[in-house]
Task: structure prediction
Amino acid sequence: MSATATPLAVVTGASTGIGFELARICAAEGYDLLIAADEPQIEEAAAELRRAGGNVEAIETDLASVEGVDALLACLGGRRVDALLANAGRGLGHGFLDQDFATARRVVDTNITGTLYLIQKIGQDMRARDAGRILVTGSIAGFIPGAFQAVYNGTKAFLNSFALALRNELKDTKVSVTVLMPGPTETEFFRRADMLDTDVGQAGKDDPADVARTGFDAMMKGEADAASGWKNKIQSAVANITPQAILAQHHRKMAEPGSGQD
Result:
């Protein structure tokens, strides 16, 4: 590959929200793009990015499955990936015992299983050539026992820990791993998670473009982690010194169904 070739970024969960904004920033920063999501809106996102001048390929694929991730990898055709922005994720509200298990498992498979498989496959290539950047979208939620959002918060706790562990494993290479830890962000997340009737669903949220910029800049600097916004930075610091039972009760007040109703 020519040293002057345009770098390639892979962005998952790029149809809307933080993922779309990450893709937009990558395009503006000179990357070619392969974007992926498990919904047809990914084609609309690709069209918008192309109108802005980006060189964009898109694939609609099930990122919760090994087969879906393999389909994304097949689209690469062996091309070098300079930046992997592993952003695909799902949320799920309500009490765990009231959730449909297949739906809860899909959260785990999307947020963890598919994400790990993709990172391993692309990360192995990055390590082999001793170059590359990986950004994993974790969450501030990963620091908090998520009453009425237990599965989602648990997956984000896993991703926060995993990304920092992988970073350490790669510390003697030129492959960087950064974890982005957003707080509540103005995306489709709360509607899709059936949480619009909760306090957190109705509260003010961060701009996904600002969150994406924070994550992209941290990735380019090779930083370990990035919490977007001063409120989230304070929240993550407070979570480290607050008893878990208190954190869980606080989360319950924000996420319990009906908590956002007068």
